[in-house]
From TrEMBL, chains A, B:
PANTHER family reported for this sequence: MARR FAMILY REGULATORY PROTEIN, TRANSCRIPTIONAL REGULATOR, MARR FAMILY
HTH marR-type domain: residues covered: 12-144
Record's protein name: MarR family transcriptional regulator
Matches recorded under Pfam families: MarR_2
Length: 146, 146
DNA sequence: TATTGTTATACTCTATAACTATA
DNA sequence: TATAGTTATAGAGTATAACAATA
């Protein structure tokens, strides 16, 4: 599916339309750049999540991304198959699995984040740098709801 | 799935994350308001599309929304079952079906667009009016790619 | 031959319910 | 009893392929 063309104002001014198509365009720009790394944007999001800060359990990670814990199982499986992450039993609670990056996972994460910056720059190219930063800040406040 | 909570900066600053969660929050706010009208946000988008300007064929409508023509068939079926739209053979080309709104469809569209404005206002509540308008303008330019 | 609408089908993404092991 | 992870399964949403009617 391609991004879009000139739909009449009534539709294209809807926030739902704009958010959906901005996402589509970003995916079109970014996915081809992730492909050489052997991962999808979704998988990189997980590497970014589990690569930063203190180790998280699968369920903690799922909550932060707003996805179901059963979905997280499959996503971690994918990354484990690629040997980019490991599951480790949590020291304090043997029910929990902490997800940590392997050396290779760390390398892919770093490369992927560089690619992400590039793809985002392509998407935001129509905007002045100041406006791009305002867009990001506005979305951030809207998502946080404050 | 709920919207999200405090994920670490590395993830929450990603544009893909922000766009997805803004969309999720908007849907959470809007869908309950559409429900009393007996339609989904998706269906209202179609009413808005086919209600504005000159009549469009299914395929023209699909192109403008960036969806597949086979998907459009099912969506128009739904609205036709609810008697909100009609399919009419195009005068000049008997292969094409122009989609037009019924009287009831027009009423639902008007009410739905009012609800949309309300839901968007709720989503954008954290922003000053000026910033909200800037956000919409920035997304518009990004989606148009210029 | 090409295009529009349609149907049948399959694939992806996601969630719900039920199981297990641990707490 | 409750929670973390897991599995099986089902439901959206979407696309691909093939067909009928029309151009």
């Amino acid at each position: 599916m391609s991004s879009d063309l000139g739909a009449p104002p009534a539709v294209t001014r809807r926030l739902g339309y704009l958010l959906k198509h901005a996402q589509l365009r970003l995916a079109e720009l970014a996915e081809p750049l992730y492909a050489p790394l052997g991962i999808t944007g979704r998988q990189l999001a997980l590497l970014t999540l589990f690569g930063a800060g203190p180790a998280l359990s699968q369920q903690e990670g799922a909550a932060r991304l707003g996805i179901d814990r059963t979905t997280m199982v499959a996503l971690v499986d994918e990354l484990e198959d690629k040997e980019l992450v490991r599951r480790e039993v949590a020291p304090g609670d043997r029910r929990k699995r902490l997800v940590t990056l392997t050396g290779e996972g760390e390398r892919v994460r770093a490369a992927g984040e560089e690619v992400t910056r590039h793809a985002e720059a392509l998407l935001l190219a129509p905007l002045a740098e100041e406006d791009a930063e305002r867009l990001r800040a506005a979305l951030h406040r809207v998502v946080r709801g404050e």
